[in-house]
Amino acid sequence: MCAAIETQSPGIKDPVPSSSQGACLTMKTYEFLARRNWPKSYTGKILLVSFLGVHVPMIGAVTYVLLADPTPFSQEIGILLAMLAATLLGTAGTMLVMNALLAPVVAATNAAEGYLRERKTPRMPTRYTDSAGVLMASVQECITRLDSALATTEYQREELARDHSEKFKMLAGMRHDFRTPLTHILGFAELMKSEAIGPLGNKAYHSYLEKIGDSGRDLLQTLQSVLDLSDGEARRQLDEDSESFDIVAMARDAVSLEHLHAEKCDIAVSVEAPAELALYSVRSVMKNLLGTLLDATITGTPAGRSVTLRVSEGGFGTCLVAESHGGQLCIEDVPANLAHFFGTLPSSAGAPSARAETSTPLTVRLTLIATLAKAIGAELAMDQTAGEGFRIAVTLQPHQAGYAIAAE
Questions:
Q1: Is 46 within the bounds of a domain?
Q2: How far, in Å, CA of 67 to CA of 61, rounded?
Q3: pLDDT for res 9
Q4: Omega into 39 within 30° of 0, i.e. cis?
Q5: Are 342 and 230 in a shared domain?
Q6: In which domain, by residue range, is 235 found?
Q7: Is 402 within 8 Å of 235 (Cβ atoms)?
């Protein structure tokens, strides 16, 4: 298998180009050499191959001369030594040049590792047009774009935090609107409870009861206004952010982004979807939702098994299903508010349990899936079959996609 992640479209079988077959064979050769423990470095393997490529023909030529030529060996020793010296000099020069030609690969590797570990932006040459030059230019551009995207995201996060802070300050500024009615309610209720001015039948209580009712209605109206404002703002924001896009292409991109995670976990991931499928929703939310779906399903699947991502459309709307073949969720994996999707779940120790004492990384992922689905009004469903695996399904109804706000 050339890669741990494959994509499939039911009913469509594309012929494999000869160039792709050649690339696959080349990758298999690299994987074979990469699994060898000696030499450990990539540069060492290149130099070893170069050394063998030069000296194997030379050794064959010398052996042929010694065996086939009737001339005495003493008369040929000078020629053989000259050939050996020339070969060694040529090999040394070849290795020096090969090492120099490998410098772009080493530079690109160090640049990527340096950014991942220390977020250090490299400065590599980008004006060369051969394969090594394109590699350096591509790594430089990828890191530059990634750093710009991260900076933008961090700025937006700070802006969002400030916006939330301002909203909380606004609500704090309304404390008088809440405090005064509540003070009336609590004060008059306590006065009536103690019957400080007489039995409950006293006429003064009627006035207090009217004030309690008025204060309660004022408080309810204020709260309803705040809720209407928040709900209207959320709806308006969703309408502004929604757009039409191909959910199948986004699903395949999500699989590509999870490629490294899947390979490290030895999980094969496939996509079952039509050629394309238009969806009107919030692109950023759907992208995060698909990524989290795959990440959670891969995390919960044992090594050597597989995961399938299905995208389909039917009478109930657009459905995204991530299915783990062989994965089993424990009660520690499932948040309490999502436990109703399952029957009795075993604990990580193997015995059935009614309540989780701890949580796992899957708990956060499943919570995020539920939050993202709720944000776009999608319906979430999960189930598990013992010995077979589990599935997570998100369904967006046609009239909900991009517009609805999930009811509290």
A1: yes
A2: 10
A3: 39
A4: yes
A5: no
A6: 174-242
A7: no
